[in-house]
Design a protein that fits this description.
Layout: E1 13-17, H1 21-27, H2 32-53, E2 57-64, H3 72-95, E3 98-103, H4 111-123, E4 130-138, H5 140-156, H6 167-171, E5 184-187, E6 206-209, H7 219-230, H8 248-254, H9 259-279, H10 281-303, H11 308-327, H12 331-346, H13 352-377, H14 382-407, H15 422-442, H16 450-478, H17 493-496, H18 498-513, H19 517-522
Parallel strand pairs: 1-2, 1-5, 2-4, 3-4, 5-6
C-alpha cells in the first residue's frame, strides 16, 4: 500500500457488492465454491488497491441475509472462506494498518465465526490507514428493522422521546453508525441493482455497475470506477437544471441566500476580534484560546471521525499550550510543547499519511494562534501589524466573494472548490493591496513607501486566499463540506479564519527573519 494516490482526490468511502463468483466458475466448468475461493483473492487485491489509491473506507458485501437460502454446502464453503481469510490475512492487515469491522446480525452465527469476528475487530481497532468493513449476515432492510426495534425499546423504557428521533438519531442505531456514508457504490458482474445492500447509507452514493465478474476484479477495475465517480457532479438533492435554465456557474453567482448570515456573523466576529486585538494581553489570549478549542475539535472531527475524542484532546493540549506559552512571551517553548504533543498523538496512527495528518493538524491549528499573540506583543508596532492583517484579509475575503459572484469566469480548481474563480482571486488581491496602502497611510508611512504597502497588501491578500483554497483541499481530502456549522453562513472557525491563519504564518516567518522590517514600514504608527 505504498503507491502514490491519483491526481484527483479519491472517494473517501467505497462500497462494493462483490458479485459474479458463481458465473465466473461456471464459465470455467468449475463448482461455485471455486468461484468463491477466487473471490477471496479478488478481495485481497481490492483491499491493497484501495490503500494504494488513498481510499479511507472500504465496505464489501460478503454474505447477505438472503444467502441462507443457498445450498448448505455452499453456505458452509462461504463460512470456511471467512475462517481461512482471517487466519491467513489478519496479521498482514494489522501490519498494514487496516482496521476490520464486521456489520450484520450476529445471531445465528456459529460460535467460532462470532469469535473470529470479535478477535479481528479487537486486534485491529487501533489501525487507521484503511477501514475495511465486511457486511456478513447482513441485509439493508434487516439493518433498518433492527435499528427501529432498538429505538422502540429505548422509547418503551423511557430513555428516548419520539420527537428526539430524527435522521441523525436514527443513524446512530444502524450497524454503520461509525462510518461515513459511501461516496461510491460499485457492483460487479453487470447487474444493476443494490440487492438489499446499505439501503439507508447509499441515499446519495454514486452508483457504478461494472461488467467485471468479481474474481477478475483488480486495481484497474477500481480505478475505472473511481474515474467514473470523479467525472460526475454530486448534487446531494439539488435540482437538476433544465435546458432553458441558467448555466450552473451563472445560477451559483445569482444565489445570495447566505449573504445575510455571512454579514451578521462576519460583523460579530470582526467586532470581537478588533476588541480583543486592541486590548491585547489576556483579551487576545482568551480569544485565541477559545478559537483553539473549537478548531482542535473541528480538525479531530474531520481527520479522525472514528477516534475524535483522543485526537481532540491531544490537539487541544498541544495548541492550547502553545497559546499559553506565547501569551507569556515564550513562543519557542510553546512551539516545542506543541510539537511534542503532536508527536505523542501521532504514535496512535499507523500509516505515514495518518501520522502527517496528526502532526500537521496540531501545528495547523496552534501555530498561527501562537504567532498571532507573538505578533501583537511585539513592541512598538504589534497592534499595527495585527490591524494590517485584519484589514487586508477582510478586504480580500469580501471582494473575492463579491467579485466571484458578480463576475464569475474560469474556476481555479473545480476539483477542490467548485465556486472559487480567478476573478475572485484578482479582485480580492486588488482589494487587499488597497487595504494595505490605506494601512500604510494611517500608520504614517512616508509617501514613497505607499507603493511597498500596495505590494505588501497584495501579497498578504493572496496568501490568505490561498489559505482558503488549502482549507478546501483539506475538506475535500476528509470528505466534509464544512469543518463544522458553528458560524452561520461560514461553517466552522477553520472555515472562517483560514485566510488569516495563512497570512499570520507568512507574516510571522518574515518578521522572525527580519525583526526591524515592520518598524521601517510603519513609520509613526498609531
Amino acid at each position: 500500500m505504498s503507491a502514490a494516490p491519483p491526481a484527483q482526490p479519491p472517494p473517501r468511502h467505497v462500497a462494493i457488492i462483490m458479485d459474479g463468483n458463481g458465473r465466473w466458475a461456471k464459465l470455467r466448468n468449475r463448482p461455485r465454491t471455486f468461484g468463491h475461493s477466487e473471490g477471496v483473492e479478488a478481495l485481497r487485491r481490492a483491499v491493497e488497491a484501495a490503500g494504494d489509491l488513498g481510499v479511507r473506507y472500504l465496505t464489501v458485501f460478503g454474505f447477505s441475509t438472503e444467502n441462507w437460502r443457498r445450498p448448505a454446502a455452499e453456505i458452509n464453503a462461504l463460512f470456511d472462506l471467512l475462517r481461512l481469510y482471517v487466519a491467513r490475512d489478519l496479521d498482514r492487515l494489522i501490519k498494514e494498518g487496516v482496521r476490520v469491522r464486521v456489520i450484520g446480525a450476529r445471531a445465528g452465527l456459529a460460535p467460532d465465526i462470532a469469535s473470529i469476528i470479535d478477535n479481528a475487530e479487537t486486534r485491529t481497532r487501533h489501525n487507521d490507514q484503511l477501514n475495511l468493513t465486511i457486511a456478513f449476515n447482513y441485509g439493508g432492510q434487516d439493518e433498518i428493522a433492527r435499528a427501529a426495534r432498538r429505538i422502540a425499546e429505548e422509547a418503551a423504557a423511557g430513555r428516548l422521546k419520539p420527537d428526539e428521533v430524527d435522521v441523525a438519531r436514527f443513524e446512530s442505531f444502524l450497524d454503520c453508525a461509525e462510518l461515513p456514508a459511501p461516496d461510491l457504490l460499485v457492483r460487479t458482474s453487470g447487474e444493476s441493482r443494490l440487492s438489499n445492500f446499505m439501503l439507508w447509507q447509499a441515499a446519495y452514493s454514486e452508483l457504478v455497475f461494472l461488467d467485471v465478474l468479481w474474481p477478475d476484479f483488480d486495481k484497474s477495475a477500481l480505478e475505472a470506477a473511481i474515474a467514473q465517480f470523479n467525472s460526475r457532479e454530486r448534487r446531494f438533492g439539488g435540482a437538476t437544471l433544465a435546458h432553458h435554465e441558467p448555466e450552473p456557474d451563472a445560477q451559483a453567482r445569482r444565489d445570495w441566500s447566505d449573504l445575510g448570515a455571512r454579514i451578521v456573523s462576519g460583523l460579530v466576529l470582526a467586532i470581537g476580534g478588533l476588541i480583543a486585538a486592541w486590548h491585547g494581553g489576556a483579551w487576545l489570549a482568551g480569544a485565541c484560546g477559545a478559537a483553539v478549542v473549537v478548531m482542535s475539535y473541528e480538525w479531530a472531527r474531520m481527520s479522525e471521525p472514528e477516534a475524535t475524542m483522543p485526537a481532540f484532546l491531544f490537539a487541544l493540549a498541544g495548541s492550547l499550550g502553545a497559546v499559553m506559552f506565547a501569551s507569556w512571551n515564550q513562543l519557542a517553548l510553546g512551539v516545542g510543547w506543541m510539537g511534542a504533543c503532536a508527536a505523542v498523538s501521532a504514535l496512535r496512527r499507523r500509516s505515514f499519511g495518518a501520522v502527517l495528518e496528526t502532526l500537521g493538524g496540531t501545528l495547523y491549528v496552534g501555530l498561527p494562534c501562537a504567532l498571532f499573540l507573538w505578533l501583537r506583543d511585539r513592541a512598538p508596532e504589534g497592534l499595527e501589524t495585527i490591524l494590517t492583517l485584519f484589514s487586508v484579509i477582510w478586504a480580500a475575503d469580501i471582494f473575492a466573494y463579491f467579485g466571484g459572484k458578480l463576475i464569475g469566469g474560469p474556476k481555479i480548481a473545480r476539483g477542490l472548490s467548485p465556486n472559487k474563480t480567478w476573478s475572485g482571486i484578482v479582485t480580492g488581491a486588488a482589494a487587499g493591496a488597497l487595504a494595505g496602502a490605506a494601512c500604510g497611510a494611517v500608520f504614517g508611512a512616508a509617501g514613497a513607501m505607499i507603493g511597498i504597502w500596495l505590494a505588501l497588501g497584495a501579497l498578504i491578500a493572496f496568501t490568505g486566499l490561498m489559505g482558503d483554497l488549502f482549507e478546501s483541499f483539506l475538506k475535500r481530502r476528509f470528505g466534509v463540506k464544512d469543518a463544522s456549522r458553528i458560524i452561520p453562513g461560514h461553517g466552522g472557525v477553520l472555515d472562517r479564519i483560514d485566510g488569516l491563519m495563512a497570512a499570520t504564518l507568512l507574516t510571522g516567518a518574515v518578521l522572525a527573519a527580519w525583526p526591524g522590517l515592520s518598524a521601517w514600514l510603519i513609520g509613526d504608527g498609531l
